[in-house]
Amino acid sequence: MVSQPSPSQRPRPSLVIIGGGATGFGVARDAAQRGFAVTLIERGELGQGTSGHFHGLLHSGARYAVADPGTAAACYRENQVVRRIAPSAVRDTGGLFVAFDDAELAHAEVIRQACAAAGIPTTDVPVEEVRAAEPHLNPAVTGAFAVPDGYVDGHALIELNERAALTADVPATVLPHHTVTGFRREGGAVTAVEVRDVLSGRDLVVPCDHVVNAAGVWVPEIARLAGAHVDMVYDQGTMVTFEDTFSTAVLNRSRPEGDGDLLVPDGAHSVMGTTSRVVAAPDDARPSDEEVALLVDEGAVLVPALASAPVHHAYAGVRPLAGGAPGGPATRQLSRGFTVIDHTDDGVPNVISLTGGKVTLYRLMAESAVDLLCRRAGIDAPCRTADTVMEAAAHGA
Ligand SMILES: Cc1cc2nc3c(=O)[nH]c(=O)nc-3n(C[C@H](O)[C@H](O)[C@H](O)COP(=O)(O)OP(=O)(O)OC[C@H]3O[C@@H](n4cnc5c(N)ncnc54)[C@H](O)[C@@H]3O)c2cc1C
Question: Range of 136's domain?
Answer without folding.
Answer: 92-150+233-322
